[in-house]
Amino acid sequence: MNENLFAVLSAKIPEFSKGHRKIAEFILSHYDKAAFMTASKLGDCVGVSESTVVRFATELGFEGYPELQKALQEEMRTRLTAVQRIEVSVDRFSHDEIFKSVLLHDIDRIRRTLEETTTENFGATVDLIVGASRIYIMGIRSSAALASFLGYYFKLMLPNVTVIETGSRSELYEQLMHMSSEDVLVGISFPRYSRQTVHALTYAKNIGAKTIAITDRTDSPIAQKADRALLAKSDMVSFVDSLVAPLSLINALIVAVSIRNKEVVSKNFEILDRIWEEYEVYEKNGGVEENGV
């Protein structure tokens, strides 16, 4: 189902049977709780059978209740406030299982990211970056850490890289004023999506620059403005956004770009190695210099 789930439920309520109407109304009113209920528990809450809940899912066009639940969780993420996210995480994770549960969820996000990213799309994205005259990178709020990480390594490898530091909207456009059709903008955003990042991608497209989105779904606001979208799952329901899968995807992007520019990158790091050695950039541990860039 590509349509907004909540809009579909609202539109279909008059058509539903009494039992299905109860389910729809409960989901619309308590989506933060319904998204993590089993079919049996959801049925108990509204006073219908588990089989009625399953039939409700299939009537909406899903293969079964798990598919409906997954869609509900994805839709829900753009609606939850920070306080609601905290409440949901408290309900989901017991104190004794937080460490294990969070890591297992992150492992699942990486697995799903791997499943949804095609080699062809990833390769085409690398082509856009390698072929660009100048690379602009933008991510704000929690995505700022990802933009900074990507920008740090791209600046070591490539000559013309700018990480957009945003304040007001006017400052955003001032930093983009020299962008041309030969350039590429990489926008990074996850729920709740940044309006500033959407504005930047819109501006880039309007002047003919290439646009790349690193986000969580094909219908996200920034994916809709992008020539290429790389999807990474980041749907930990908490006030803290899980950046493990997006960071892993960005790691792969950095490695791929470095391999495509092997000679230039190698020459750059030869220079950097001499600078780091001469100015003692890295602390030595027991006589052995620590690894890292």
Order of neighbouring strands in the sheet with most strands? 2-1-3-4-5
- Any idea what the CATH architecture of the largest domain is? 3-Layer(aba) Sandwich
Number of strands: 7
Please summarize the sheet with the most strands: 5 strands, parallel
Percent helix, as a range, is 55-70%
Query: So what's the CATH class of the largest domain?
Result: Alpha Beta
Q: How do the SSEs run, as a string of H and E? A: HHHHHHHHHEHEHEHEEHHEE
**Stretches with pLDDT under 50, minimum 5 residues:** none
Taking the alpha carbons of the first and last residues, their distance comes to 44 Å
What share of residues are in beta strands?
A: 5-15%
Provide the CATH topology of the largest domain: Rossmann fold
**What is the total domain count?**
3
Secondary-structure-based class equals alpha/beta
The CATH homologous superfamily of the largest domain is called Glucose-6-phosphate isomerase like protein, domain 1
What does it look like?
The protein has 293 residues and is α/β, with parallel strands linked by helices. The chain folds into three domains: 5-76, Orthogonal Bundle (Arc Repressor Mutant, subunit A); 111-260, Glucose-6-phosphate isomerase like protein, domain 1 (Rossmann fold); 265-293, no CATH class. The protein contains 14 helices and seven strands. The chain has helices at 5-12, 18-29, 31-34, 39-46, 50-59, 65-76, 82-92, 98-116, 119-130, 144-157, 169-176, 195-206, 244-260, 262-278; strands at 135-138, 161-163, 184-188, 210-215, 228-231, 284-285, 288-289. The strands form two sheets. A five-stranded parallel β-sheet has the order 2-1-3-4-5, with helices on both faces. Strands 6-7 form a two-stranded antiparallel sheet. β6 (284-285) and β7 (288-289) form a beta hairpin. The model has no long low-confidence stretch (mean pLDDT 86).
